[in-house]
Amino acid sequence: MKFTFATWNVNYRKFKESHLAFLREIRPDILALQEVSPHFFRELSSSNLFSNYHYSMDYNYIQRGADSSRPRKRGCAVLSSSDILLRKPLLILDLPYPEKCLILDAELDETVIKICSFHTPPGVTVKELKPLSHMVLAEWLKTRDHQVILGIDANAPDVDHPNLAENVWYWEDEPKLLGKDRIHDLRDAYRDYLMSNPDLFETIVEDRPEGPLAVSHVTGKGSKGTGRRYDFIFITPDIRVQKVEYIFKKACDAGSDHALVYAELEIDS
Q1: What are the distances in angstroms from CA 107 to CA 30, 147, 206?
Q2: For residue 142, which of 31, 48, 188, 234 sits 20 to 30 Å off, Cα-Cα?
């Protein structure tokens, strides 16, 4: 069975018609969003572009973290087409910021896949709570008993090297979620795709021998900005990759500062 999945950090922007037009053009079967405001979710879910939708801020959780005294308004969302039912919403309450992770069951025919939308808070503001967030999610992935698709803005790595072993990290625990020796068995769908398309991989390495493999976000300003690959789709080994694309310019023009990552995937029914 083939289907499409996309993940996109909408950067807490106000919902605009350009967001809707862009998503209507991409039209993934399942969409994971990060840094979603209540207004953005309300407008998108009422647009009739998706039939099923859940928002992490709609569920009760214990507010923790460095700014636990102030209400937080940036959550994660998962939306799907009419033929994919979303149910059993779950927050990981051990996370410093539970609203930054939403897990759901997606029913595709008779197959159930766990869909996870996750946003890692930047270390510059939350310090050691960032790698702690990585570790808590990595531990959950290690103990999972379903097929899983993870859409994530990881705010890492510092260097996304063509050789994963040469990645550079901001915090010691980040590679346990994202690196070569990660503690779970999910794979980076884009690296899988490049390994199946060696000519494309070679072209990227010739252009950017130190990485990143793709640009999903730019840190810094103007000509001194640094392109980074912070956004990923991770999948369990029983999900096959047909295509992965980083759509950066159109996603930014639509109203974000992150690429939308789009994947064509296949599973056995």
Answers
A1: 11, 11, 41
A2: 31
Q: How many domains does the chain have?
A: 1
Q: What is the CATH number of the domain that holds 76?
A: 3.60.10.10
The two three-digit tokens of residue 123, written as one number = 């270390």
pLDDT in tens, 66-87: 555 566 789 999 999 999 999 9
Q: What is the CA radius of gyration of the chain?
A: 17
Instruction: Copy the structure tokens of residue 223.
Output: 């000509």
**Domain range enclosing 68:** 2-266
Is the full-model pTM beyond 0.70?
yes
Instruction: Tell me the backbone φ, ψ of residue 154, rounded to 5 degrees.
Output: -90, -10
Residues 202-242 pLDDT 10s: 999 999 999 999 999 999 886 689 999 999 999 999 999 99
Q: Please report where in the chains the tokens 């996370």 appear, as a residue.
A: 95
